[in-house]
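B., you asked whether I could sanity-check this one before it goes into the benchmark set. Here's the sequence:
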Amino acid sequence: MNISSSHEEKKDKKAKNPYFWLQQVVGDYINCKLTKEQWRSPTFFKEAAFKAVAESNSKVLSYLEHEFSPQGYTILMILAESSLTLHCWPEERFISVEIFTCGKRNIPKKGLDYLKNIFQPENYKIKEIER
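And here's what the prediction gave me:
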């Protein structure tokens, strides 16, 4: 695609929705092939989430995590450009992630693609929500 058509597409999208730069992507990672040590490691998920934010061209302002008993983990990150949430259910080998950005230079799908490579799911769904 040439630059002028890309520019025209953005102008057309902006005409239809002036908030076209709001991006929300949701990823569900099913039957992830993580080791028992990875499933039990809050550090593993924390590092993955921070790297996903960097891949999205975003910046973390605040970080909150909660480890559930006997298992499970949730991360919430407040970004300069909005937020990331990550929830995992080790007993189901399932991880769900949502990245919402409001910056024109952010690419949240790149963060979810990075996590797909790290989590190694047998199946996954990534949905981009048009705002």
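One thing to flag: Residues 39 and 90 are 6 Å apart (CA to CA). Otherwise nothing jumped out at me.
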